[in-house]
Amino acid sequence: MKKIPVAAAALSAVLLTLAALTVLSGCAKKPADSGAAVTESSRLNVYCWTYYVPLSIREKFEKEYGVTIIFDEYDSNETMYAHIQAGGSGYDIVFPSGDYVSIMIKQGMFERIDKSKLSNIGNIDPLVLEKTTYDPAMEYSVPYYFGAAGIAVNTERIPNFDRSWSIFGRTDLRGRMTMLDDMREVMGDALVFLGHSVNSKDPAEIEAAKNLINHTWKPNLVKFDAEAPGKGFANGDFWVIQGYAEMVYEEISEAQKATTVFFIPPEGGPAYIDSMCILKGAKNIDLAHKFIDFIHRPDIYAEFTDYFGFPATVNVPARQLKAVEPYYSAEELLRTELKDDLGETLDLYNTAWFDSIRIGE
To answer: Which of 54, 126, 142, 249 has the most C-beta neighbours closer than 10 Å?
Structure first.
């Protein structure tokens, strides 16, 4: 393994303890043919974001290829990275966001993608690839989804509100709101609200964002939650949450959808391109390529985005096959900014987040 850059090493050191406390929520599934033995060549080990690949798609892949997917989940890039750094590998595929794809490529953590095995790779939008400056030729990563977190509001409880990050400063909603337990997301929201880049390397701007979160937003929050804010929103404990559309719409009832608004604030915020990457030392590289190619089959990608109410941002032909109106538009993503690999500046974010915001001043 290559030497870890200073910033990444600091991140790893901080998070190894957190990783030890993390309980993975994945569960093994039975083979499509319940009488078949599960061998190494017929098992794909996937480490992915919570909710992110619909069960129906996993089952279709299993049936089509006569294999089993072992699916483990994580709730943040930091958790994923720390777990793998701590030796929790054994996975074939992982789904990091762009800034972590960059970090992990530099550390030699991925196998090269064999594009000759990907018949559907031409379906990927060239405009999305232009944004993947960390790996534009897809040598180590294949884009899965281009999106952004936003804000969900229960309009039955809050009929009047500004579509802005400023909603988290409303003291009348104290004890009814949550934000993600995700450093780059929350810090990025504060930075753009203050008129700065989500990738700011200015110590004064980072300090100002920290102070905004600590003194204006955090006092009104129940907690920072990246695991299950949608559940709390669905049962009425939370009226406003920062999160991803799938977190919300996976949990609420059809009736609740009529009183739920999800939006990306006009100030913008951090965007992400999550990619499918094959980990160095993967046991089933061939099957991993088959899975990546399967995801980018237009009908499968349309099913994935329809399931979560996403626009089909990455796969062009899938846009013609969609049957569900997205919960937010691709145009809203134009307001956002991709999170970059911050290099050594990541230490400033770590200090702000772990030594102050998450622990408290």
So the answer is: 142
